[in-house]
Every structure is written in structure tokens, then in C-alpha cells.
Amino acid sequence: MKKISIIILILISFVLTGCKIQGHKIVHFEVINKGAIDFDKYKNIFFEDIKINSSVKSYDPIPDINEFFLEEFPKAIKRDIKRAEVPESISKDPVSGSSLIIRGELTLKTIKRSIIREKKKEKKFVKVENWEMEMKIFFTDMKSGKKVFFKTLKSLLNTADPKKPDYNFKFLFTKITEKLIKGIIRVGKTERRYLLIK
User: Fold this and answer.
1) Distance between alpha carbon 103 and the CA centroid of its chain, in Å?
2) Using 50, 70 and 90 to split pLDDT, how confident is the model at 185?
3) What DSSP assignment string belongs to 95-158?
């Protein structure tokens, strides 16, 4: 009796599975990022120096920031980016009627603290820092003055080594710029949908 019940259950599961598979078709398609910017419609893209508010006086982050926006970011969006040294004169230039300018502000805060670390069965107080980075970034259409993109990005690093400010900064800045690229480029994630077949 038990064998018959098991056989019946197996047959029912096959029938139900067959019905599900036969009436559907799986389709994969790419979803375009809603926050993406159409960089191709702009003749020029400019980058203005980002305002920096930092409590770390032993390290100058400007070279790293400029390297990203003038060398790495252009590769991600597949467009050249020029430095905007005098934005006022650019905005008056009729050629820049369809130009985009990148502006922003980066804030870096650190909190010093001491922790206990055990090394070779000996406990020592070690000074570490908590780093908190926030970057406000916006892209403005120079013809209309409208912000076509605005975002605040944050990143944290606990127990950072005070003696390695360059590593700490680059670690946080890389995390922030990765978020920026993911949020702004047109390519989105691939999603799967089921279509009914008549």
C-alpha cells in the first residue's frame, strides 16, 4: 500500500512539473540603470576641483582624486574629461552649450582611540583611528544649469593605522568611486523573466 502511494506521488509530481515547464519560456534581458547619464549627448565634459574638508593634515588627497576623475573615470564612461580651471569662462563659451561639469565635496573625519592587542602573550595598548569619508558629487548641465545627477556616498574604515594615511584614504576612496561608477553607467544588471506560451 505504501509503495502504491509513493508511486502515485511521484507520478503527480512529474505531471505538475511538466505542466509548469511546458507553459513558460525563460527570457534574460538587461535592465538599464535608472540613474544613468547619457554622456554621449554632451560635446564636452569638465571636472572642477573638488572641495576637500579633511582632519588628516599629513596626507594630500588631491592627486588621487584628480587621477580618478581625469584618468580612470573617463575609461569607465568612455569619454574624455577636461579640467575646468575657470568654470565661469567655460559657461560663457557658446561651444560649451551642451557641456557637462562635474563638481563635488569630500569630507574626511577621523576619531583616534586606543585598543588592546595581544602579541606573543603580551598585551599592549595600540593607537588606531576610525576613518569616515563622505563625498557629495553632482553633474550639472551647463546650458540649463540643471543637476542631472546628485549623490552622497559614504565609506567607513575602523581600526585604521594612523601611520598609513595614504593606504587608509585610497581604501575608502576606492570603495566610494566603485559605488559611483555602478550608480552612473548605463549598463545594468541582467534579470530573468518568465513568458507564458499559448
Assistant:
1) 16
2) confident
3) GGGGEEEEEEEEEEEEEEEEEEEEETTEEEEEEEEEEEEEEEEEEEETTT--EEEEEEEEEEEE
* Percent over 90 (pLDDT), the chain: 46
**Burial class (CB within 10 angstroms; exposed 0-12, middle 13-18, buried 19+) of 75:** exposed
Which pLDDT tens digit goes with each residue over 63-111?
Answer: 999 999 999 999 999 999 999 875 554 555 555 458 999 999 999 999 8
Query: Do residues 45 and 100 touch, judged by C-beta distance below 8 A?
Result: yes
CB 36 within 8 A of CB 182: no
**Residue 102, CB-side half-sphere exposure with 13 Å CA sphere:** 25
Cβ–Cβ < 8 Å for 103, 90: no
Residues facing residue 26 across a β-bridge: 194
pLDDT of residue 159: 85
Q: Within a 10 A sphere around the Cβ of 170, how many other Cβ atoms?
A: 14
| Contacts (Cβ under 8 Å, ≥6 apart) of 197 | 22, 23, 24, 25
- How many angstroms separate the CA atoms of 8 and 29, rounded? 39
CA atoms within 13 A on the CB side of 43: 10
- Grid coordinates representing 149 are 545627477
pLDDT of the residue at 19: 46
